[in-house]
Structure formats: C-alpha cells, structure tokens
C-alpha cells in the first residue's frame, strides 16, 4: 500500500505471494486480524516510500495488530522475516509468527518510537490454528454488512 494513508486492512487471508505478504509505504494505517500464508519474502514489511517516487511518503504511525504468519515449507528468499518494521512510531502487538520453516521473527527498527508488545514466535502455529483463523475471518466477513 503506497500513497494512501489511514487505511484499515482487516480480516483478510493473503496466500502464496511472490514477494511481501503485505507492503505498507504510507502512514497511519491499521493492519489487523489478517492471516498471511506462504509469503515469498518478508510477511509484513513497513518502509518509507522511495523519494524517487512521484508521491514519496513516510510510513510512520501504523498499527500492526493480531496477525498470523504461517509457512508450510522452507523458502529460498533473501529476506524471510515475519515482521520487518523499518519506520517510526509503529505499534506491533499480538502477532503470531511461525518459526517452523526458518522464517525469522522480527526486525523492528530500534530507537524509533516503535512499540513491540506481546508478539509470539512459535513452532506452535499448527495447521488447525491456521484453519481456525481463516474460518473466523471468513465468518466475520460473511456477517459484516456491506457499505452502500
């Protein structure tokens, strides 16, 4: 997500991406309750938008909450991190990253006002946990009224 601020990305399933599962290059967004499966590189990556872009942006002040990151096999990516936060003043809380197939847990920029709270790096992200997470997200989507 680039050049767009104050977005809500909630209760989605992202599967089998070539590169990042979610790339955020803008400020004040919420990424919550998503399931990211088989991201080709970093599962969640926050980085400022390149100054060479027609619309350069800082990606500060985001909230990354209660997402599940799962892999079922080893990847050959050069960058294989669950939570890569290269920005400032971001809250990273309650996320669960599967370590079973070699994904690194997190790379959160230090001394930048970021908050790293209650994130879990575990082998215990089982397929059953993943299925329950996906089922819950689909149920939320099915019962949420659509905007007119």
Give the helices and strands, then pairings:
Elements: E1 8-10, E2 13-17, E3 22-24, E4 30-32, E5 35-39, E6 44-46, E7 63-65, E8 68-70, E9 81-85, E10 91-93, E11 96-98, E12 104-108, E13 115-117, E14 120-122, H1 127-143
Parallel strand pairs: 1-4, 2-5, 3-6, 4-7, 5-8, 6-9, 7-10, 8-11, 9-12, 10-13, 11-14
Fill in the keyword field for this structure.
mainly beta, five-stranded parallel β-sheet, 14 strands
Brief synopsis:
11% of the residues lie in helices and 34% in strands. It contains one helix and 14 strands; from the N terminus they run E-E-E-E-E-E-E-E-E-E-E-E-E-E-H. The longest helix is centred in the C-terminal third of the chain and has 17 residues.
Describe the structure.
This protein is mainly β and 148 residues long. It has one domain (8-141). It contains 1 helix and 14 strands. The protein has one helix spanning 127-143; strands at 8-10, 13-17, 22-24, 30-32, 35-39, 44-46, 63-65, 68-70, 81-85, 91-93, 96-98, 104-108, 115-117, 120-122. The two termini are 24 Å apart. The mean pLDDT is 85.
């Amino acid at each position: 997500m680039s050049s767009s601020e104050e977005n809500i990305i909630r209760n989605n399933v992202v599967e089998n991406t070539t590169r990042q599962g979610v790339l955020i290059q803008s400020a004040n967004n919420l990424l919550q309750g998503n399931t990211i499966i088989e991201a080709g590189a970093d599962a969640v990556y926050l980085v400022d938008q390149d100054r060479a872009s027609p619309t350069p942006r800082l990606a500060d002040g985001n909230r990354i909450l209660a997402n599940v990151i799962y892999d079922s096999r080893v990847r050959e990516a050069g960058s294989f991190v669950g939570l890569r936060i290269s920005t400032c003043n971001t809250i990273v809380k309650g996320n669960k990253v599967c370590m079973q197939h070699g994904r690194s847990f997190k790379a959160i920029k230090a001394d930048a006002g970021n908050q790293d709270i209650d994130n879990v790096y575990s082998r215990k992200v089982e397929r059953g946990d993943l299925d329950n997470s996906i089922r819950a997200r689909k149920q939320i989507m099915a019962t949420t009224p659509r905007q007119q």
